[in-house]
Fold this sequence. Notes:
- The protein is an alpha+beta fold.
- The chain has two domains: 1-39, no CATH class; 42-93, 434 Repressor (Amino-terminal Domain).
- Helix content is 38%, strand content 19%.
- The chain is built from four helices and three strands, in the order E-E-E-H-H-H-H.
- The protein has a three-stranded antiparallel sheet with strand order 1-2-3, with no helix packed on it.
- A hairpin with a 2-residue loop joins strand 1 (6-9) and strand 2 (12-20).
- Helix 2 packs across helix 3 (69-76).
- The chain starts with 5 loop residues before the first strand and ends in an 11-residue tail after the last helix.
- The relative contact order is 0.14.
Amino acid sequence: MAPNVGFLLGRKWFRLRRTPAADGKPRDTFVYMSVYDEMPSPGVGLWRYARLKAGLSQPELGKRAGVAETMVSALEHDRRQATLPTLMRLLKAAGFGLHMQLAP
């Protein structure tokens, strides 16, 4: 089993993948692991995780949250910034809540 090793290069995430070579010895390579070109912002990663855990597609989430499908796609690809109310609606539509706490 490959160790859970990865690194950031700019905003791109790479992870170690161990595969057997033709001679039977393991070969380690770093591969780009994201389906997106860049790492998402924390807010996008949060609601993308909620959407996937809920088993919803982007259009389904958009319909439930009252957000256009094109907007959901733009937000998920980090081409647009979600406001806090929009983030809350997206999370609620996926069946999740968000609790915030201000700490010194």
